[in-house]
Amino acid sequence: MSTDALLFRNLPGFSPEAVRRLVATRYGIDGTYRQLASERDLSWRIDGTDGRDVVVKISNIGEPEGVVDMQVKALNHIFERDPSLPVPRVVPSLAGAPYEWIEDERGYRHMVRVLTFLPGKVMEQVEEAFSAATRFNIGVMVGRLAYALRDFFHPYAGSNVHLWDISRALAVRPQTAKVSDLRLRQLCEEIFERAERYTLPQLSKTRRQVVHQDSHGGNVLVDPNDSTSPVGIIDFGDMGHNSIVADIVTASETFSDFDDDPIAYLCDVTSGFDSAYPLEENEVDLLFDALLLRLAMATVIVEAREATSESGIPHIENAGQYPRMMELLSRQGRAEAVRRLRQACRFPVYGAMSKDGEHLTDDYDVLRHEREAHLGPIWHFYAKPLHITRARGAWMYAADGTAYLDVYNNVPQIGHCHPHVAKAIYRQASALNTNTRYMCDVAVEYAARLTADLPDHLDTCIFVNSGSEANDLAMQIAMSLSRQDGGLIIDQAYHGCTELTTALSNESWRHLPAEEHPKRIETLTAPDMYRGPFSRDPQAAAKYAADADRAIAALRERGHRPAAFMVDTALCSSGVLRAPENYFNLVAEKVRATGGFVIADEVQAGCGRMGTFWGFRANGLKDENIDFITMGKPVGNGHPLGVVILSSELMKRFLNGTYPLLFSTFGGNTVACAAGMAVLDVLEREDLIKRGAAIGEYLRQELGRLAEQHPVIGDVRGLGMMTGVELVTDRLTKEPAITLTERLIDDMLARNILIGKGTPNTLKLRPPLIWSRDEVDIFVNAFDDSLRKHQ
Questions:
Q1: Whether 106 and 142 share a structural domain
Q2: What is the per-residue pLDDT for 104?
Q3: I want to staple 718 with a disulfide (CB 3.0 to 4.6 A). Which of 187, 394, 461, 723 is the partner?
Q4: Which ranges carry the Aminoglycoside phosphotransferase domain (predicted)?
């Protein structure tokens, strides 16, 4: 069929009364009819009198039966592969056929079929739907659809000839002469010329399959109560065999009057698609050219149609956006588009090659022997160490296939092996992995993004490899700049495993005789509001903070002054305590008055763990009272990364003083920064901090319910997804239930749930932020059973 012929839609000539009779006779459906906009078919929505809402479609006379059969079978295939994907379902006729043949008044035969009606609002008609979140979610849904169709085949997949097929773009090219605006006509010609020379040959090298290729804003439905949530894809009339790139650019072509950045639109849709159906580099690199071609085709088709006798028939809303966005996209340029698209999908800016992974042995005894031979006899967590071979989300899997619910590890904060982080690491590692002695975009971008919501005096990052290194370096800087060498910490603190941070971690040496304690470190009484000396005192904050005066004086007597007060604001190792309001600020002010600094150790409290991104804010420590922030553990979601955040002024003073050649070989390497960037992506996209705060409250609520049944639970406390459960043998005396705590940890392991402890009688629960109520219920039910067993 020629392009000129395709320009004429030749809509079937059936009156509403005729359609009503046909559908009632062939399908037994009647109701209220509303005609729907359609390019070449006749479509009606029927609000059925029997409660069934459907859409009836009468095909154009030129539609081959095989193409309709393909669409019907594709819908059935999608339902088999992804039943929850919101696409129409085929309603068979009374005769059990997926479609029926009918004749119009002129004797021409047409196919009629009925599909289920999908509720929702058309995206392009909802102003609130023109958002980054909506675009990303549309990309996800279109990606799921393409993924469901990846193994679908039909002999007519290549026979659905229509104007909008991007692989047949050159058939539309002669119509460019009908574009009235000379400037637009020239731009369209340039785009078609590039398509012939580059875009179409490259398109043929991308993955090809049956695709929807019509998921623009007129065919995507959104939730009326949440415009960011797409709830349906309709109109499979343009389906055919093509590149998966065609699906992405079609979903990226719907713009609003206030959109002025088509690359941003394309990036949002692409990153969503990529999260559901991972893209390859050549596909990402071609998206700019393909979208330009799609916009040029749309511009030409709209103008060519206006030159026919069918001009004025409404079909495409806001068609004037096509040329406007085509010009904007062209001006932004290919280099900028490719760069941003690669960043959106966490592809490195330059090429990538695949790498093979290693296979771990499944023989437990052999592996244990080899480990002890080569790594020494150091074991953690359990008497019989677990042999974990893989993990995903909230679960860890042993070599024997046993699944363990992880309630302990606070490193994979956004879930084990999050695919977005894994892809970012792989893509960056495949291109470049080097240190900060070289200029690399990703390190600069990550530092800027990480500090974006911090006050002006916290604007500079130093990257290292772990939380221990970050705390060590922050303390070194504090000592260098204050010219003081002492340190204040909270009792039972843990800040790292280097020589300096071990001294700052009395968890490591509090059991030793007093004469063996570090002389330049002083420990503050933990602000315990459950069993501490001021637990019931309304002046608890001031009274606990007064211990800082004692500690500073004690240091002075030994010839030291505090260079810094280092504090994990989650008080995790101290039993996940909840300090009284303003306690941290009172101590900080006392230390700063002596010339010392305040180091907020966010290794455990940061990255959303406490219900806000920064743990110090969750616990009321004022921005102005902080001189350093340190991060580690979850900042790379398992990839080695540590960060010291300080002011540029302090940084310059330090570099001009004691350490002019400060450098970490691996700190801030490109792969680590890519992992960090991906973690921030996931936190934002999945709204994990807000979600974690809500689920954490639900967890503590359920634990509180258990406490009403089990007197051994003395206290439940925490913020966000950090919870402490203190166990006692007697609630009146608050005698620590140390033996029972160990038994419960082992018993929960036997129930395939991993938990740990902060203090000898306090369970430390740090599940990933991706938990839902389902995981809470699994844990609480198992914990309930375990408590009953040991009561």
A1: no
A2: 79
A3: 723
A4: 34-268
Query: What is the rounded distance in angstroms from the CA atom of residue 300 to the CA atom of residue 188?
Result: 8
* Amino acid sitting at position 103: E
- Residue pair 545/590 in contact by the 8 Å Cβ criterion: yes
Q: Spell out the alpha helix ranges (H) of 558-625.
A: 583-593, 615-618
> 131: exposed, middle or buried (C-beta count within 10 Å: 0-12, 13-18, 19+)?
middle
Helix (H) or strand (E) holding 540: helix 540-545
The answer to the question of residue 255 being in a domain is: yes
Residue 358 is predicted with a pLDDT of 33
> pLDDT tens across 407-446, in order?
998 899 999 999 999 999 999 999 998 887 787 889 999 9
Cβ atoms of 478 and 510 within 8 Å: the answer is no
pLDDT value at residue 361: 40
> Are both 151 and 78 inside the same structural domain?
no
Same domain, 531 and 593: yes
Report the CATH number at residue 94.
3.30.200.20
Single out the residue in 97, 117, 137 at which a domain terminates.
Answer: 117
Q: Are strands 31-36 and 100-103 parallel, antiparallel or unpaired?
A: unpaired
One-letter amino acid at 339 equals R
Task: For 197-329, list the strands marked E by DSSP.
Answer: 208-211, 220-223, 226-233, 240-243
**Based on the domain organization, do 98 and 157 belong to the same domain?**
no
**CB atoms inside a 10 Å sphere around CB 326:** 25
Query: Quick one: angle between helices 670-685 and 441-450, nearest 10?
Result: 40
- pLDDT, average across residues 227-248: 94
Alpha carbon of residue 299 to chain centroid: 35
Q: Indicate the number of domains in the chain.
A: 4
Residue 580 DSSP class: P
CATH number at residue 770: 3.90.1150.10
The residues facing 110 across adjacent strands are: 102
pLDDT bracket for residue 165 (50, 70, 90): very high
In a domain, 441, yes or no: no
- Per-residue three-class SS string for 138-184: HHHHHHHHHHHCCCCCCCCCCCCCCCCCHHHHHHCHHHHHHCCCHHH
- The bridge status of strand 220-223 relative to strand 121-122 is antiparallel
DSSP summary character for residue 453: T
Mean pLDDT, rounded, of the chain: 91
- Domain co-membership, 156 together with 301: yes
Strand pairing partners for 360? none
Q: Which residue has the tokens 């095989």?
A: 66
User: Of 303, 318, 345, which residue is a domain's last?
Assistant: 345
CB atoms within 10 A of CB 361: 11
pTM equals 0.81
* Enclosing domain of residue 743: 688-790
Phi, then psi, of 729 in degrees rounded to 5: -85, -20
Place of tokens 């009836």: 56
CATH of the domain at 295: 3.90.1200.10
User: What was the pLDDT predicted at 355?
Assistant: 31
Helices (H) and strands (E) in the chain, counts: 25, 27
Residue in this structure with the two tokens 């050649």, named with its chain if needed: 661
| Closest C-alpha to 7, from 156, 178, 193, 166 | 178
CATH number of the domain to which 510 belongs: 3.40.640.10
DSSP state of 99: S
pLDDT in tens, 761-778: 999 999 999 999 999 999
Q: What is the 3-state secondary structure (H, E, C) of 676-736?
A: HHHHHHHHHHCCHHHHHHHHHHHHHHHHHHHHCCCCCEEEEEEECCEEEEEEEEECCCCEE
Helix, strand, coil percentages in the chain from 3-state DSSP, rounded to 5 = 40, 15, 40
Assess whether 139 and 86 both reside in one domain. Answer: no
Interatomic CA distance for residues 33 and 10, integer angstroms: 21
Same domain, 47 and 136: no
> Rounded to whole angstroms, how far apart are CA atoms 165 and 237?
11
Q: Angle of helix 773-790 relative to helix 738-750, nearest 10 degrees?
A: 120
703 belongs to a structural domain: yes
Dihedral sign for Cα atoms in the order 729, 731, 733, 736:
positive
Q: Are residues 78 and 124 part of one domain?
A: no
